[in-house]
Amino acid sequence: MNEHKGHKYIFQIVSGSILSWNAVLEGEANKVGYSLPAARKTGTTICGVVFKDGVILGADTRATEGMIVADKNCSKIHYISPNIYCCGAGTAADTEMTTQIISSNLELHALSTGRVPRVATANRMLKQMLFRYQGYIGAALVLGGVDCNGPHLYSIYPHGSTDKLPYVTMGSGSLAAMAVFEDRYKPDMEEEDAKRLVRDAIAAGIFNDLGSGSNIDLCVITKGKLDYIRPHDEANKKGVRTGDYKYKRGTTSVLTKSVTALNLEVVEETVLTMDTS
Amino acid sequence: KMAAATMSPYFGQQMSSKNDLVPAWTSQEVSTGTTIMALEYDGGVVIGADSRTTTGAYIANRVTDKLTPIHDRIFCCRSGSAADTQAIADVVTYQLGFHSIELDEPPLVETAANLFRASCYRYREELTAGILVAGWDRRKGGQVYCVPIGGMLVRQPVSVGGSGSSYIYGFMDSNYKPNMTKDQCLELTAAAVSLAMERDGSSGGVVRLASISKDGVERRVILGNQLPKYSTH
């Protein structure tokens, strides 16, 4: 695929558009020795579980820029529609914008059909968009919601492949979270058990993966209600300082004191009026 | 970008870019490493596949369904890039459904195979997709068509595909006989896919089987502990 300089022809039937030239820009920049600025990534642990009455989505809240934590409390569970939410891992901007675009289109679609949107529809829209961009939109998503056909959970990869499963994890901490799920997941769990499971899975990611950290956000979606719990668990509260490096006045004794006045002459004075109307 | 995800072995972790916090496999493409198989018998076809999808060395989905319905009596077995094959299958499902409504008749398996071939050949430089199209129609009965990477189309009585297929060509050549019954075909498919799963790292999980005939589609799953056992050590 690297032989094609400039453009790649992707599925005209599904898309109709030619791949963005940002890919070319990056290639050309690298040739001259420059690297594009590191995008802010959500190192991330995100996961989802289908339980008896619906789905629960969970996420950590750390956003990294290289090795620095850029945001200690970012929100990774995005709104798609009143009954559908989506967790995003990968490039923060990509997950944010992709979910917003699909949320907007889905609202229009729902108005057009006169029906509550289905999770499968959101899945189709997301996978077709990500496939069109051939993986250059770095968005790895966990999509979950409840519609007329019951609760559904999908994992969506940056290249556009999707899997429909009862439990999924994504992001750099996904292995730690999946270990928890594989150990303790059961079909048709109660809400409290499922919440505890998701909380523990995200916690595993937070404490064992350097790219994930801070708090645990949860989103419980059932037929009748939606609980967006942010934060569900402040797993990494900032400690209270026990001491102070400020020295009290008098710690160093004063032996002598002399005061010299600084006489300044006003040379010029200009007044600029500010128009505050 | 990963090249020919089906046949090449995994060469170890590629250089992790800029960020050490995010491991390499998070940026690698999802591949259905795979073993897939399809056989014709008198009156229909039997298809089988493993259930493993990998991103690099991590198994992204251990219960994948690689036997995808394209129409009532036409299925495809997917191998290669998960995104590419899912997208192609969606496109062909739409095209075939539309064509069938125009015709007011169930579509031919050969038509479905040609639609796959058209997409796989036209975009051959961009795609990594090895597909087996199998089904039943009134005109020619059970048929298996092979559309490998590159976009060739050929009808075969038996066909295997995916990275695990290399390990079972000998088994297929020696054990397949023409005019087998449906149950013999199912047994052979289950055995072949199990053997491939045993040897190929990119194949594993459960064995999914389906038989397609005039009467419809019958699906079954053989779980890990029920797989035929061959290892003596």
From TrEMBL, chain A:
<keyword id="KW-0647">Proteasome</keyword>
<dbReference type="InterPro" id="IPR029055">
    <property type="entry name" value="Ntn_hydrolases_N"/>
</dbReference>
<dbReference type="InterPro" id="IPR016050">
    <property type="entry name" value="Proteasome_bsu_CS"/>
</dbReference>
<dbReference type="InterPro" id="IPR001353">
    <property type="entry name" value="Proteasome_sua/b"/>
</dbReference>
<feature type="domain" description="Proteasome beta subunit C-terminal">
    <location>
        <begin position="235"/>
        <end position="271"/>
    </location>
</feature>
<keyword id="KW-0539">Nucleus</keyword>
<keyword id="KW-0645">Protease</keyword>
<comment type="similarity">
    <text>Belongs to the peptidase T1B family.</text>
</comment>
<dbReference type="Pfam" id="PF00227">
    <property type="entry name" value="Proteasome"/>
</dbReference>
<keyword id="KW-0888">Threonine protease</keyword>
<keyword id="KW-0963">Cytoplasm</keyword>
<protein>
    <recommendedName>
        <fullName>Proteasome subunit beta</fullName>
    </recommendedName>
</protein>
<dbReference type="InterPro" id="IPR024689">
    <property type="entry name" value="Proteasome_bsu_C"/>
</dbReference>
<dbReference type="InterPro" id="IPR023333">
    <property type="entry name" value="Proteasome_suB-type"/>
</dbReference>
<feature type="active site" description="Nucleophile">
    <location>
        <position position="44"/>
    </location>
</feature>
<dbReference type="GO" id="GO:0005737">
    <property type="term" value="C:cytoplasm"/>
</dbReference>
<dbReference type="GO" id="GO:0005634">
    <property type="term" value="C:nucleus"/>
</dbReference>
<dbReference type="Pfam" id="PF12465">
    <property type="entry name" value="Pr_beta_C"/>
</dbReference>
<comment type="function">
    <text>Component of the proteasome, a multicatalytic proteinase complex which is characterized by its ability to cleave peptides with Arg, Phe, Tyr, Leu, and Glu adjacent to the leaving group at neutral or slightly basic pH. The proteasome has an ATP-dependent proteolytic activity.</text>
</comment>
<comment type="function">
    <text>The proteasome is a multicatalytic proteinase complex which is characterized by its ability to cleave peptides with Arg, Phe, Tyr, Leu, and Glu adjacent to the leaving group at neutral or slightly basic pH. The proteasome has an ATP-dependent proteolytic activity. This subunit is involved in antigen processing to generate class I binding peptides.</text>
</comment>
<dbReference type="InterPro" id="IPR000243">
    <property type="entry name" value="Pept_T1A_subB"/>
</dbReference>
<dbReference type="GO" id="GO:0004298">
    <property type="term" value="F:threonine-type endopeptidase activity"/>
</dbReference>
UniProtKB/TrEMBL annotation, chain B:
<dbReference type="GO" id="GO:0051603">
    <property type="term" value="P:proteolysis involved in protein catabolic process"/>
</dbReference>
<keyword id="KW-0539">Nucleus</keyword>
<dbReference type="GO" id="GO:0004298">
    <property type="term" value="F:threonine-type endopeptidase activity"/>
</dbReference>
<dbReference type="InterPro" id="IPR016050">
    <property type="entry name" value="Proteasome_bsu_CS"/>
</dbReference>
<comment type="function">
    <text>The proteasome is a multicatalytic proteinase complex which is characterized by its ability to cleave peptides with Arg, Phe, Tyr, Leu, and Glu adjacent to the leaving group at neutral or slightly basic pH. The proteasome has an ATP-dependent proteolytic activity. This subunit is involved in antigen processing to generate class I binding peptides.</text>
</comment>
<dbReference type="Pfam" id="PF00227">
    <property type="entry name" value="Proteasome"/>
</dbReference>
<dbReference type="InterPro" id="IPR023333">
    <property type="entry name" value="Proteasome_suB-type"/>
</dbReference>
<keyword id="KW-0645">Protease</keyword>
<dbReference type="GO" id="GO:0002376">
    <property type="term" value="P:immune system process"/>
</dbReference>
<keyword id="KW-0647">Proteasome</keyword>
<feature type="active site" description="Nucleophile">
    <location>
        <position position="34"/>
    </location>
</feature>
<dbReference type="GO" id="GO:0005737">
    <property type="term" value="C:cytoplasm"/>
</dbReference>
<comment type="function">
    <text>Component of the proteasome, a multicatalytic proteinase complex which is characterized by its ability to cleave peptides with Arg, Phe, Tyr, Leu, and Glu adjacent to the leaving group at neutral or slightly basic pH. The proteasome has an ATP-dependent proteolytic activity.</text>
</comment>
<comment type="similarity">
    <text>Belongs to the peptidase T1B family.</text>
</comment>
<keyword id="KW-0865">Zymogen</keyword>
<keyword id="KW-0391">Immunity</keyword>
<dbReference type="GO" id="GO:0005634">
    <property type="term" value="C:nucleus"/>
</dbReference>
<dbReference type="InterPro" id="IPR001353">
    <property type="entry name" value="Proteasome_sua/b"/>
</dbReference>
<comment type="subunit">
    <text>The 26S proteasome consists of a 20S proteasome core and two 19S regulatory subunits. The 20S proteasome core is composed of 28 subunits that are arranged in four stacked rings, resulting in a barrel-shaped structure. The two end rings are each formed by seven alpha subunits, and the two central rings are each formed by seven beta subunits. The catalytic chamber with the active sites is on the inside of the barrel. Component of the immunoproteasome, where it displaces the equivalent housekeeping subunit PSMB6.</text>
</comment>
<dbReference type="InterPro" id="IPR029055">
    <property type="entry name" value="Ntn_hydrolases_N"/>
</dbReference>
<comment type="subunit">
    <text>Component of the proteasome complex.</text>
</comment>
<dbReference type="GO" id="GO:0005839">
    <property type="term" value="C:proteasome core complex"/>
</dbReference>
